[in-house]
Write a structure and sequence with these properties.
Order of helices and strands of chain A: HEEHEEHHHEHEEH
Bound molecules: ligand 2BA
Strand order of the largest sheet of chain A: 1-7-6-5
Number of strands of chain A: 7
Largest interface: A-B, 31 and 31 residues
Helix content of chain A: 25-40%
Oligomer: homodimer
Number of helices of chain A: 7
Structural class of chain A: alpha/beta
Radius of gyration of chain A: 17 Å
Strand content of chain A: 15-25%
C-alpha cells in the first residue's frame, strides 16, 4: 500500500452497514435508550427518526448527565424524558463519496462517524477502530 | 513527514501526562467512580492503587452492567461495591520505550492505552485521538 492508495481508499469499504448498527429512535423514552446501550455495551449509538433519517447521537454520558441530580440519581426521569430531548443533534456527518482524509480528520474528535447517502438515508457508521486498523495495515508494510 | 518519521515517533510526545489524567483508586466505592466519570464526562478512566501503580480501567459501561438488575436498577450496589470488584484488570499496557507501531496496533481495540515506566509507575495515557491527530498530520502533507 502506498500513501496514494490510502488517500484514495473508499470509506464504504470500512463502514459498519446500517443493518448491524444498534440505534434508537427520537420518540423512544430515555429508559429504552439506556437499556439498548447497556445490552449492547456501546457507549453511544445513532438516533434515527421514524423515516430512518439520522437525527443525532445518544450516549450513556448524556443519559447519566441528565438523571444525575444534586441530591440523588433521578431515575424517574428515564421514563418521563424522550431520546430527542437529550440526544446531541449537532454532529458531523459523512457522505458516501467523502474521501478518506475527510473521515480521518473528523474522527479526531468523534468516536464514530455516521454515514449518509445523497438523499440523506442512513448507511452506517465509521468507527475509529476501522480507521486505525486500516492505517496499521498500511504502516505495517 | 515520511513514513520513517512516523514509525520512529516517540509515543511520549503524544501522551496525556498522569497529572492531568482523571483516575480513581481500587479501594474507592463504585459510587465515587461513577461520580468522577459523570463529572469529567469520560467513558472510562485508569484505576490506581494507593502506591499509584496501575491496576486496571473502570468505565460507565462496567458500572451500569453491575447495577442493572433483572427487575430494576440496583443503585444501592453503588455504595456497597468497590472499584476493584468491577474494574477490568486485564488490559494491555504500553511501556515508555514502546514504538509507534506497537501503540497503533493496540489502539485498534482500546479507546486509550495506559503508559508505564520501567519500574511500573503510571506515566499517563495515549488516547486514540492523539494517534489519529498525528496520522492525519502525516497524511495531510
Ligand atoms: N461488542 C464489541 N466487540 C468488540 N469490540 C468492541 C465491542 N464494543 C466495543 N468494542 C471496542 O471498544 C471500543 C469503544 O466502544 P464504545 O462502545 O465506547 O464506542 C463505540 C460505539 O459507541 C459505536 N459503535 C461501534 N459499533 C457499533 C454498532 N454495531 N452499533 C452501534 N454503535 C456502534 O462506535 C464507537 C467506536 O467503536 P470502535 O469500534 O471504534 O471502538 C470500540 C471497539 O474497539
Ligand atoms: N473533555 C473533553 N474535551 C474534548 N474532547 C473530549 C472530551 N471528552 C471526550 N472527548 C472526545 O470524545 C472522545 C471519547 O471520549 P471518552 O470519554 O469516550 O473516552 C476517553 C476517556 O475514556 C479517556 N480519556 C481521555 N482523556 C482523559 C483524561 N484526561 N483523563 C482520563 N481519561 C481520559 O480516553 C478515551 C479516549 O479519549 P480520546 O481523546 O481518544 O477521545 C475522546 C475525545 O475525542
Amino acid at each position: 500500500l502506498t500513501t496514494e492508495d490510502v488517500l484514495n481508499k473508499d470509506i464504504m469499504d470500512l463502514i459498519i452497514p446500517s443493518d448491524v448498527v444498534a440505534h434508537v429512535q427520537t420518540i423512544n423514552p430515555l429508559e429504552h435508550a439506556l437499556l439498548v446501550l447497556v445490552k449492547t455495551g456501546y457507549s453511544a449509538v445513532p438516533v434515527l427518526d421514524i423515516d430512518n433519517k439520522l437525527k443525532g447521537i445518544i450516549s450513556k454520558t448524556m443519559i447519566l448527565n441528565n438523571i444525575f441530580g444534586i441530591e440523588r440519581i433521578e431515575f424517574e426521569k428515564l421514563s418521563k424524558r424522550k431520546v430527542q430531548e437529550v440526544m446531541k443533534a449537532d454532529i458531523p456527518i459523512l457522505k458516501v463519496h467523502d474521501d478518506f482524509l475527510t473521515a480521518l480528520k473528523l474522527s479526531i474528535d468523534q468516536t464514530f462517524l455516521c454515514v449518509e447517502d445523497e438523499e440523506g438515508f442512513f448507511k452506517g457508521i465509521l468507527p475509529r477502530s476501522a480507521l486505525l486498523k486500516y492505517l496499521n495495515h498500511f504502516l505495517q508494510d
